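User: Hello! My lab partner asked me to get a predicted holo structure for this protein. The small molecule is zinc ion, SMILES included with the sequence. Please write out the structure tokens.
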Amino acid sequence: MIDAHVHLFPDRLFDAIWKWFDDNAWTIADKLYADQVVDRLQAGGADYVVGLLYAHRPGMAEELNAWIGALARRRPEVVACCTAHPRDADILSVLRRAKEVHGARLVKQHAHVLAIAPDDPVMFPLYEACIELGLPLNLHAGNGPRLPGYKAPTERISGAAHTRPVLERYPELRLIVPHLGSLEPDTFFDWLERYPNLYLDTALAMVDFMPSTKLGRRDRVGRYPGRILFGTDYPNIPFALGTELQELRGYGFARDVERELLHDTAARLFGLPPATGASQGERT
Ligand SMILES: [Zn+2]
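Assistant: Hello! Below are the structure tokens for the protein in complex with zinc ion.
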């Protein structure tokens, strides 16, 4: 099993993020630092943990990228992402170094944290660098959750209307929209037909915390197993780890569908070795 949406930050940033969540969002039950997060997810059956972090101001990306690269060297089950702030001086060089020196396999950014809409031209160099380097981008582009602490109203800086211009302008960008597109899941599911390089992840969206789709999550998720990645958003979640995996397994998908969702789609996208034999994630 590959958990395609996990947050890994240096301790001091986790402390700051948790304080922000305490003040503005929900109480995180498991306030665990990076190594403990990886331990916990492995104990829950994850063979790989895709570690996500993001730069919220210019000039901090290089340090974060080096930090997660070092973690991934020490813990080979960690799949390192990298990040750049759209106002960093040389985004292509920052991301190239992250890929070539620190082994990054994807890029992460977050519209709400940046308070910059996906279709703001200031974002374009980031997309162009991802394409040039062949790195998928996990961009929190959806308009939920709507949390009071964000610097700008989420409908102004995110959502389907602000994402579609990116999909149209950069069809070759492999874009992962987390949380099944947040508050507009039907639109993003429809777009899986239209935009072949669009992917969704399930983080926070497999329980009744985010709105479900008109068709129902089971039908929608089961229709596009090659384009949907299972992820937990651990440790920044307001419910017990395992809740969403249990929900997904409860759908009773065919074995190959479940395997795509829990492993193969992420393995292809991030260039990880195909599973050999029965992985932990396939045990019941
Ligand atoms: Zn997340």
